[in-house]
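Why should sequence recovery work at all? Because a backbone constrains its sequence more than one might expect. Tight turns favour small or flexible residues, buried strands favour hydrophobic ones, and helices have their own preferences. The token representation captures these environments compactly. In the example below, the structure is given first.
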């Protein structure tokens, strides 16, 4: 009926449609509308589900990556603590120096490591231990004494990289902003390739502020400037190294003093024996 009224209104001369046909056509239109809404709703739901499925999969993958990174960091910290325990148990300074260079090469990821320590006799920093350094280069490094001013030039604020110092081929040249300190958020350092002539200097400062020496690091295994996480792990290792050096030097000093006391005691006993024999 409604369909007839509509059709007659649109075209007055049109013959009315029979009621049965009108009802059939009306239901057909209704079913088509419902079907269209259903298809549209299904497609909209499918798009929503696919987008959220992809987002959930992306979040899951990101979470897996973060978990893997945390596990890697945890394993590195465990290795640092285990190495620290071995270093603190080492009383022989020469043996300790070798262990330090090997530990930094293993944990820090640098193929070339040189340990420089301060010498009171020469009033300079001297190369004492190496890892991954060629023999001819060792001889050259051993013969080169780094005076305190040269060390301070290396550790100038322009080269500051967290608590270490990233030095270029020319120590007097300022490093690019992108390779600035980790703290100031200049960021992106880990995206920079390691350049020939660059050196990462890690000072070894005692709890009392004494400059015990420094580590000179070159040729990273991944060929890139270390990022925030890597540099933090390196700094934690450096703290353990400094503690081990202080402990070993104290132990050696005590052992040396005991040996001197022993010699003095023996001399005193010998003099007493001579005195008694003379009397």
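From this structural description, the recovered sequence reads:
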């Amino acid at each position: 009926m409604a369909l007839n009224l509509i059709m007659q209104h649109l075209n007055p001369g049109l013959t009315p449609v029979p009621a049965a046909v009108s009802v059939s056509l009306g239901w057909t239109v209704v079913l088509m509308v419902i079907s269209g809404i259903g298809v549209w709703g299904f497609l909209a739901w499918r798009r929503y589900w696919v987008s959220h499925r992809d987002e959930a999969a992306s979040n899951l993958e990101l979470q897996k990556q973060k978990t893997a990174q945390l596990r890697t960091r945890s394993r590195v910290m465990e290795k640092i603590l285990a190495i620290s325990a071995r270093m603190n148990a080492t009383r022989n300074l020469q043996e300790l120096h070798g262990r330090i260079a090997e530990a930094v090469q293993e944990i820090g990821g640098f193929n070339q490591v040189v340990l420089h320590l301060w010498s009171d006799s020469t009033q300079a920093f001297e190369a004492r231990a190496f890892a991954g350094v060629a023999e001819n280069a060792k001889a050259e490094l051993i013969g080169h004494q780094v005076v305190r001013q040269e060390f301070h030039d290396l550790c100038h604020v322009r080269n500051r990289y967290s608590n270490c110092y990233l030095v270029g081929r020319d120590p007097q040249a300022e490093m690019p902003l992108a390779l600035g300190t980790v703290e100031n958020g200049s960021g992106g350092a880990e995206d920079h390739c390691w350049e020939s002539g660059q050196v990462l200097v890690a000072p070894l400062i005692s709890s009392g502020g004494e400059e015990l020496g420094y580590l000179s690091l070159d040729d990273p295994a991944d060929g890139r400037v270390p990022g925030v996480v890597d540099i933090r792990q390196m700094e934690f290792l450096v703290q353990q190294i400094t503690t081990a050096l202080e402990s070993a030097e104290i132990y050696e000093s005590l052992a040396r003093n005991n040996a001197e006391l022993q010699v003095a005691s023996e001399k005193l006993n010998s003099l007493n024996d001579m005195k008694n024999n003379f009397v």
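A few observations help interpret the result. The two ends are 151 Å apart (CA to CA).
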